[in-house]
Every structure is written in C-alpha cells, then in structure tokens.
Amino acid sequence: MAKVFFTSDHHFGHAAIIDYESRPFGDVEQMNESMIASWNETVGKEDQVFHLGDFSFLNREGTSRILHRLNGYKTLILGNHDRSRSRSWWLDAGFQEVSGNGIIYKEFFLLTHEPLYMNRHMPYVNIHGHIHGQKYEGINHFNVCVEHWDYKPVSFEDIMNILASRQEADRDSSAEG
Predict the structure, then answer these.
(1) Residues of the chain below pLDDT 70
(2) CA distance 146 to 74
(3) What is the distance between the alpha carbons of residues 141 and 127, in angstroms, rounded to a whole number?
(4) DSSP string, 93-104
(5) What string of DSSP letters covers the chain?
(6) HSE of 85, CA atoms in CB hemisphere, 13 A
(7) What is the pTM of this model?
(8) Do 175 and 159 contact (CB within 8 A), yes or no?
C-alpha cells in the first residue's frame, strides 16, 4: 500500500545553505547526492510526497534531472525561493502537481511552506517548512524541514504518532497545572 510523506527545504544546488544551516556535507554535490539517496531509501515508487517548498536552486535541466531520480508522486507547494519561477516551470521540471498556496490535507492538516499562526485552541495542525533547524512546534505545528529528519521525508504515519505523543504530553502538563 502506498504511503504519504512530507518534506521541505532541500535547497538542491544551493552551496551556501551548507554553511547557513550547518549541514553535514563537504560540498553541494555531496549534499545533493546524499539527499537523493536518503529520499529513495525512504520513499517507494508508488508513494506520494508533498514537498513544502524551497526545492531547488538549479536551472530547469538540473532540477528536472533530480526530480526524475526521486521516487514517488511529487506535489510541490511553492516556497519563498520557488516563487520566482512559474507553476508551469515546476511542472515542466517534473513535479506532478504544483500549488501556489497551501493545501488542506484530510480536512485537518494545513500544508504550507511558512508556518501559520495557530493558537493552541485551533483544531488544525500546520505541517510546514521554511524555518529549517529552528524549533516552532507543538500540538498545532509540525516542521518537516530536512534538517529535522536526517534529510529524509517523514511519513504521515510517523507524524500522526509524534502528534499523538505531543497531545498526551500537553494533556499531562495541563492536568498538573
């Protein structure tokens, strides 16, 4: 049975991100190849992947070469670094679907590039990227930036398990207070 995965902020071809985010790679080629291998070790050919933005800094040909090597049916939600290119540019490069806005997934999850304001009483979870290694999580936020997940997409099943643990911990701390 096909699985669903979420990820963001690969920044393929962006050498400066290695220093900006203290990524454990010697150069951009090692980073790109390592992230492609990690993706394909995690995602099967029939799986679905929602990429929540900032996919590639390469030209269309370079981006297309990477996309065609990656397993899964790939949907892109445009990130701040993706928006200078049109939706059709990304489709031509190899994404199966592209959204300029967030997507509502399973009527409960808001998929966006940048985290949205969510107070603790809102009944939704914002799955997002953009903030790389920073922490901005709780019962209403889930950061899928590659820096948090060993440069691999994270499965919906794992997200659900982690959120359940967070909700239980939140209930426990509320009961103590």
Answers:
(1) 136-137, 172-177
(2) 16
(3) 6
(4) HT-SEEESS-EE
(5) ---EEEEB---BT-THHHHHTT-S-SSHHHHHHHHHHHHHHH--TT-EEEE-S--B-S-HHHHHHHHHHS-SEEEEE--TTTTTS-HHHHHHHT-SEEESS-EEETTTEEE-SSPPP--TTSS-EEEE-SSTT----SSSEEE-BGGGTTTS-EEHHHHHHHHHHHHHHHHHHHHH-
(6) 22
(7) 0.93
(8) no
Q: What is the 3-state secondary structure (H, E, C) of 137-155?
A: CCCCEEECEHHHCCCCCEE
Q: Compute the distance between CA of residue 135 and CA of residue 164 in angstroms, rounded to an integer.
A: 18
Q: Are 157 and 3 in contact (CB under 8 A)?
A: yes
Domain 4-176 listed as CATH 3.60.21.10: yes
Listed residue (4, 34, 11, 15) closest to 150, CA to CA = 34
The first and second tokens of residue 98, run together, are: 């592209």
